[in-house]
Write a structure and sequence with these properties.
- With 313 residues, the chain is mainly alpha-helical.
- Helices cover 76% and strands 3% of the residues.
- The chain contains 11 helices and 3 strands; from the N terminus they run E-H-H-E-H-H-H-E-H-H-H-H-H-H.
- A 3-stranded mixed β-sheet has the order 2-1-3.
- The longest helix has 34 residues.
- It starts with 8 loop residues before the first strand and ends with a helix.
């Protein structure tokens, strides 16, 4: 029975049934999606073209921006189309692919944010050793390990989910395919799946949380010894990162660690927005508006494109 699948397609939930509200939801998601793509694309351009930003901090920021563009593209375009057409069906293969990529990018994002906390810790608490510790080889290897870990983690959980049979209902109580919603539809025993999610969440999520908490405790204890002007500069680079991580991990934990019997569709959908859409949307705003170097590089990119456009005309 574990290998049989009675459902041939799934039906995703929408945020509203009324046409006007569906259009409003689609426009809101579309605007956030386009703003996310534009903001992250500008950061990738600025950190690539500006030689002054070829440092470990901006190397990870560039990778995070690329990851965020991929992450938000897995769920939002499909949700917009579903809202406008009111055609919310998705094939089992499409649902499996969406689940795989959501888990892949979410796990990789969590690991990227953890590495960025390490970067801030070394830069503030061990500045003399920064070039040695955060060398190019370390940056490349940690990025590759994060992506490989995300691939393995996603493959295991997606495969473990879709080996189950789904015969109770085909209505996924979410605007995209995610593991907790799918487990509630299965007529197989899901205890091993839920146990694996709990162990994984405590291992990876808990490990990242402890690592970041310890890093920032040391960072803040060091920053408090700085002169007043230097404190503001240090806090401006650390607090936004901590804010994004808190929103991301908190909302994701709220969805994945809730008991299956205590599911609230509206709450789950709202929490899902906060871990799939809000972090990619906030990252370019936070890192560009709070960072003079990034703002300067962005101005140069915009001016360069404007000048080239005038020359062509």
């Amino acid at each position: 029975m574990a290998n049989s699948t009675m459902v041939t397609e799934f039906l995703l939930m929408g945020f509203a049934e009324v046409l006007e509200l569906r259009v409003l939801h689609a426009l809101l998601f579309l605007l956030m999606y386009l703003a996310t793509l534009l903001g992250n694309l500008l950061i990738v351009s600025a950190t690539t073209l500006n030689q002054n930003l070829h440092t470990p901090m901006y190397f990870f920021l560039r990778n995070l921006s690329i990851l965020d563009m991929c992450y938000v593209s897995v769920t939002v375009p499909n949700a917009c189309v579903n809202s406008l057409t009111d055609n919310r069906t998705i094939s089992v293969a499409g649902c499996a692919a969406q689940t795989f990529f959501v888990v892949l990018f979410a796990t990789s994002e969590l690991l990227f944010l953890t590495i960025m906390a390490r970067d801030r810790y070394v830069a503030i608490c061990q500045p003399l050793h920064y070039p040695v510790i955060m060398n190019h080889q370390f940056c490349v290897w940690t990025t590759l390990v994060s992506l490989l870990s995300g691939l393995i983690f996603s493959g295991v959980h997606t495969g473990n989910t879709f080996r189950l049979s789904f015969c109770q209902s085909n209505v996924v109580h979410q605007f995209f395919c995610d593991i907790p919603s799918l487990l509630s539809l299965s007529c197989s025993d899901t205890f091993s799946n839920e146990l694996l999610i709990l162990i994984s969440a405590m291992g990876i999520g808990g490990g990242c949380f402890i690592f970041i908490a310890m890093s920032y405790l040391r960072i803040f204890s060091t920053v408090l010894k700085f002169p007043t002007r230097e404190r503001g500069k240090a806090f401006s680079t650390c607090v936004p990162h901590l804010l994004v991580f808190s929103v991301f991990l908190g909302s994701g934990s709220g969805v994945y660690l809730r008991p299956s019997g205590a599911s609230d569709t509206v709450l789950d959908m709202l929490l899902s927005v906060f871990y799939t859409i809000v972090p990619p949307f906030l990252n370019p705003i936070i890192y560009s508006l709070r960072n003079k170097q990034v703002k300067g590089a962005l101005k140069k990119v915009v001016l360069r494109k404007t000048s080239s456009g005038k020359l062509r005309s």
